[in-house]
Amino acid sequence: MMRVNQTETAVLGALSVAPMTGYALREAIREVLGHFWSESFGQIYPTLANLEHHRLVTRRGSSRPGSSTFAITAAGRARLTELLGQPIQPVPPRNGLMLRLFFGRHLGPEACRSLISDARADARRRLAQYDTIRHQLEADHSHQQDHPYWLLTVWAGEHTARATITWADQALAALEEMDAPGNQRNERTRR
To answer: So what's the pLDDT on residue 64?
Structure first.
């Protein structure tokens, strides 16, 4: 699946929940989908124009720029279903933290500790955010048919954050052990 199809999927999916202006769509993708999907804002407006051209969305509203509301059409819903049914294409991993830790000997244990501590703190923040989102979903009675599916993504985020916290605790303990006096690995690293 090409990147543009993934952008189409995000845009059509967001519009399947509710009609929105381009700005509201950008915010929904950033704030709601942003926990597991990022989209270049520079792709959203051209994608909307392309979807409108192919009659997958309609535009309603005033002639003022940015005030038009976009709504998904029946053909757009069919296209969304088609896109969602395509196989998931693996994305090569790009993790700056792991890149730095892999070459951590050049940074030293203290810098690595700091990176890992920051990752753990970030995971704790994300875990708290997912908890808030889950409670909001439980209290929100609109979009009830979507809630079980939305919760699947929240649970994935919670599990990923917990796994990061567990990993960070283990990694910090390993760094402490490496720094322990008399550790042969520590002596070789200093040479």
So the answer is: 63
